[in-house]
Automatic annotation (TrEMBL):
GO terms for molecular function: DNA binding; DNA-binding transcription factor activity. NCBIfam families: rrf2_super. Keywords: DNA-binding. This is Rrf2 family transcriptional regulator. SUPFAM superfamilies: Winged helix' DNA-binding domain (SSF46785). It holds the Pfam family Rrf2. One of its GO terms (cellular component) is cytosol. It comes from the Bacteria. The lineage of its organism: Bacteria, Pseudomonadati, Bacteroidota, Flavobacteriia, Flavobacteriales. It comes from Flavobacterium agrisoli.
Protein backbone atom coordinates (compact mmCIF):
# COMPACT_ATOMS: atom_id res chain seq x y z
CA UNK A 1 0.00 0.00 0.00
CA UNK A 2 1.10 3.55 -0.57
CA UNK A 3 1.53 5.86 2.40
CA UNK A 4 -0.96 8.56 3.32
CA UNK A 5 1.75 11.07 2.40
CA UNK A 6 1.73 9.82 -1.19
CA UNK A 7 -2.05 9.57 -1.37
CA UNK A 8 -2.51 13.09 -0.02
CA UNK A 9 0.27 14.45 -2.21
CA UNK A 10 -1.47 13.10 -5.30
CA UNK A 11 -4.81 14.50 -4.12
CA UNK A 12 -3.26 17.93 -3.50
CA UNK A 13 -1.52 17.97 -6.88
CA UNK A 14 -4.72 17.02 -8.71
CA UNK A 15 -6.59 19.73 -6.80
CA UNK A 16 -4.01 22.30 -7.89
CA UNK A 17 -4.02 21.01 -11.48
CA UNK A 18 -7.77 21.55 -11.68
CA UNK A 19 -7.47 25.26 -10.83
CA UNK A 20 -8.29 27.16 -14.00
CA UNK A 21 -6.08 30.20 -13.56
CA UNK A 22 -3.23 28.64 -11.55
CA UNK A 23 -3.33 31.38 -8.93
CA UNK A 24 -1.98 30.43 -5.50
CA UNK A 25 -4.31 28.31 -3.38
CA UNK A 26 -4.24 28.51 0.40
CA UNK A 27 -3.22 25.34 2.22
CA UNK A 28 -6.42 25.55 4.27
CA UNK A 29 -8.53 25.44 1.09
CA UNK A 30 -6.74 22.34 -0.22
CA UNK A 31 -6.89 20.67 3.19
CA UNK A 32 -10.62 21.32 3.60
CA UNK A 33 -11.47 20.19 0.08
CA UNK A 34 -9.38 17.01 0.22
CA UNK A 35 -9.92 16.17 3.93
CA UNK A 36 -6.24 16.39 4.87
CA UNK A 37 -4.71 17.69 8.10
CA UNK A 38 -3.22 21.13 7.49
CA UNK A 39 0.00 20.31 9.37
CA UNK A 40 0.52 17.10 7.39
CA UNK A 41 -0.33 18.84 4.12
CA UNK A 42 2.19 21.62 4.86
CA UNK A 43 5.04 19.09 5.01
CA UNK A 44 3.88 17.36 1.82
CA UNK A 45 3.56 20.61 -0.14
CA UNK A 46 6.96 21.79 1.09
CA UNK A 47 8.51 18.55 -0.18
CA UNK A 48 6.78 18.98 -3.57
CA UNK A 49 7.92 22.61 -3.68
CA UNK A 50 11.52 21.65 -2.94
CA UNK A 51 11.28 19.03 -5.70
CA UNK A 52 10.38 21.65 -8.32
CA UNK A 53 6.69 20.92 -8.88
CA UNK A 54 5.18 23.77 -6.89
CA UNK A 55 5.72 27.44 -6.30
CA UNK A 56 4.57 29.34 -3.24
CA UNK A 57 3.51 32.89 -2.56
CA UNK A 58 3.45 34.36 0.94
CA UNK A 59 1.03 36.85 2.37
CA UNK A 60 -2.48 37.84 1.42
CA UNK A 61 -3.62 35.89 -1.62
CA UNK A 62 -0.76 33.49 -1.08
CA UNK A 63 -0.58 29.75 -1.26
CA UNK A 64 0.76 27.04 -3.51
CA UNK A 65 0.51 26.69 -7.28
CA UNK A 66 1.91 24.43 -10.00
CA UNK A 67 5.02 25.74 -11.73
CA UNK A 68 4.97 23.01 -14.37
CA UNK A 69 2.29 22.09 -16.83
CA UNK A 70 0.36 19.06 -15.48
CA UNK A 71 1.23 17.25 -18.73
CA UNK A 72 4.93 17.51 -17.79
CA UNK A 73 4.54 16.04 -14.31
CA UNK A 74 5.20 12.31 -14.45
CA UNK A 75 3.44 10.28 -11.80
CA UNK A 76 6.55 8.09 -11.56
CA UNK A 77 8.55 11.15 -10.43
CA UNK A 78 5.84 12.17 -7.98
CA UNK A 79 5.71 8.64 -6.58
CA UNK A 80 9.48 8.48 -6.10
CA UNK A 81 9.55 11.85 -4.35
CA UNK A 82 6.72 11.03 -1.97
CA UNK A 83 7.04 7.28 -1.53
CA UNK A 84 10.59 6.38 -2.46
CA UNK A 85 11.48 3.31 -4.53
CA UNK A 86 8.88 1.84 -6.86
CA UNK A 87 10.28 -1.66 -6.37
CA UNK A 88 8.97 -3.65 -3.42
CA UNK A 89 12.37 -5.25 -2.77
CA UNK A 90 15.66 -3.36 -2.68
CA UNK A 91 17.29 -5.91 -5.01
CA UNK A 92 14.62 -5.21 -7.65
CA UNK A 93 15.07 -1.45 -7.63
CA UNK A 94 16.65 0.57 -10.44
CA UNK A 95 17.40 3.70 -8.45
CA UNK A 96 17.71 2.37 -4.89
CA UNK A 97 19.33 -1.04 -5.48
CA UNK A 98 20.68 -2.95 -2.51
CA UNK A 99 21.63 -6.60 -2.33
CA UNK A 100 19.46 -8.58 0.06
CA UNK A 101 21.32 -9.94 3.08
CA UNK A 102 19.63 -13.34 2.90
CA UNK A 103 20.09 -13.97 -0.84
CA UNK A 104 22.86 -16.17 -2.21
CA UNK A 105 21.95 -15.91 -5.91
CA UNK A 106 19.86 -13.03 -7.29
CA UNK A 107 19.64 -14.70 -10.71
CA UNK A 108 17.68 -17.68 -9.38
CA UNK A 109 15.76 -15.86 -6.63
CA UNK A 110 12.05 -16.36 -7.27
CA UNK A 111 11.06 -13.41 -5.05
CA UNK A 112 13.36 -11.05 -6.96
CA UNK A 113 12.08 -12.24 -10.36
CA UNK A 114 8.47 -11.72 -9.30
CA UNK A 115 9.12 -8.32 -7.72
CA UNK A 116 11.08 -7.19 -10.77
CA UNK A 117 8.02 -7.96 -12.90
CA UNK A 118 5.79 -6.09 -10.44
CA UNK A 119 8.22 -3.13 -10.54
CA UNK A 120 8.33 -3.11 -14.34
CA UNK A 121 4.55 -3.09 -14.67
CA UNK A 122 4.05 -0.51 -11.94
CA UNK A 123 6.72 1.71 -13.48
CA UNK A 124 5.10 1.39 -16.91
CA UNK A 125 1.76 2.59 -15.51
CA UNK A 126 3.27 5.44 -13.49
CA UNK A 127 5.47 6.63 -16.37
CA UNK A 128 2.60 6.55 -18.86
CA UNK A 129 0.44 8.80 -16.67
CA UNK A 130 1.01 12.49 -16.09
CA UNK A 131 -0.75 14.69 -13.57
CA UNK A 132 -2.96 15.90 -16.43
CA UNK A 133 -3.98 12.34 -17.21
CA UNK A 134 -5.24 11.67 -13.70
CA UNK A 135 -6.59 15.14 -12.85
CA UNK A 136 -8.99 15.58 -15.76
Amino acid sequence: MISKKTKYGIKALTYLARQEDQTPVAIADIAASEHISIKFLESILLLLRNSGFLGAKKGKGGGYYLIKDPKEISMAKVYRILEGPIALLPCASHNFYEKCDDCDDEVTCAARRLMTEVRDNTLKILESNSLADIAF
